[in-house]
Give the backbone structure.
Amino acid sequence: MIKNVIFDIGKVLVDFAWKETMEDLGFDDECIDVLGRELVNDKIWDEFDLGIIPENENLEAAVKKIPRYEKEIRLFWENLIMTIRPYDYCEKWIRDLKSEGLNVYLLTNYPDSLFDKSVECGFPFYPYIDGEVVSSRVKMRKPDEGIYKCILEKYSLNPDECVFFDDRIVNVETALRLGFHAFVFKNYEQACNDLRDQMKE
């Protein structure tokens, strides 16, 4: 029996619109390409999510790595909350799940300070959430099995009673290996159908 729904956040409940944010901040195409490749999609960002290195030190490491774009890197980091753009369906979806008697949790790779800002002004669904495990706070990140075990232990959950949604297949594969019911998130309609079918079993 399914009792719990566990969500990744980025690309599931909110868009992580880093490219659009850089465009809004006036960065040129070359800058966006370089920062996308060497900052956002690089191990530097993984370190932000992991939270072992203090964020200010990690930021300085990014500046040192890409010194010609120091100004842009610092401006982007100062305005990082602009990247968090909730999908239209997110709040109603969580409210509907709660009204059906399901518990709803978050399991996310997320920098610590950005999570705080997102809760304050970027997550309209957050008041309905029963709990969360954030990578930068437990010093583990998906797809590490440890972070999945962390949410199970923290909230005394049985994986067979949990449905997990994530946009990355590698994260879903870990969940499946640990006994969760898990699906790659492609869009809202598909996810609703996957959950509905799972609830029938």
